[in-house]
Write a structure and sequence with these properties.
Elements: H1 12-35, H2 40-51
Pfam family, one: NCE101
Protein name: Non-classical export protein 1
Keywords: Membrane, Transmembrane, Transmembrane helix
């Protein structure tokens, strides 16, 4: 049986895959929100609010 082939390394490959997946999702969400007429800042504000990261005044 041939040894496994890694793009970067055994540890870095899964981290790289998650990074690429999250980046692709963020780009898609941002593009869809821009089509609806929202700015990137409005999209980020919505994300922070949904994650509970928005500061309370």
């Amino acid at each position: 049986m041939a040894p496994p082939v890694y793009i970067i390394s055994r540890v870095a490959d899964p981290i790289f895959a998650v990074f690429i997946g999250v980046s692709a999702a963020a780009l898609r969400i941002n593009r869809e929100e821009k089509e609806k007429g929202k700015t990137t800042q409005e999209t980020l504000q919505t994300l922070r609010r949904r994650l509970g990261l928005e500061k309370s005044s």
